[in-house]
Amino acid sequence: MDNILKIYTDGACLGNPGKGGFAWILIRGDIEYRHSESNPNTTNNRMELTAIISALTFFDSKKTSNKHYTIEIFSDSQYVVDAINKGWLSSWQKNGWKKSNKEAVKNQDLWEQLIVFLNKYEFRFHWVRGHNGDLYNEQCDQMANSAAVQQSPIYHEMVNLKKNSNPKMPQNKQTDTSNQLEIKLNKTSKTLTLKQQANNPNELPHTIVINKDNFDAIFEKITLLKDLLNK
Hints:
The chain has helices at about 45-60, 80-85, 90-95, 110-120, 135-150, 215-230; strands at about 5-15, 20-30, 30-40, 70-75, 120-125, 155-160, 180-185, 190-195, 205-210. It is an alpha+beta fold.
């Protein structure tokens, strides 16, 4: 039976080129790893690629067994996903890193780093529509944009869903009202927006937009998380 590794990624850039940031969430069983970094001068496509390479580098360096993994990459970058799924990357290699119009392929250095992992593991690349309510995509988007705006230091966190399923409130500590959930209904666009302040000060508030197209998928994930938290 395959071991499934899910990685959600996103890149952001203020201007193109400009100040950038990238983020990824790596999910293995009940463990989530969250990571973001900034870059003072980059492009959006480089951040999208760097996010994937960074996550795979982390996984590859921490892997402690020879188990077979199928790695699923979820990205809202059509540039990255189409290059893999539509065979553009293979064609670029065969043509000496030239596109069909004979122009040089941009970001060759990053593509070559990614190829090392593509040759080592089995992958499935999925395109996720950005800002469409996907829980992990929305969180990666918030982390990447926050890193780009604030040019914050490297943020890395491991979350054990089972271990942290019943956290205890420290004694004599008042409830932080800034962490309350804000819910807004927009009758015109027929959307429900949920916003909650992030625990990490380097992150922007987590925002989820729910509409009739993504309601079932979001409800399924929330139900799964609720079951894990109640264990």
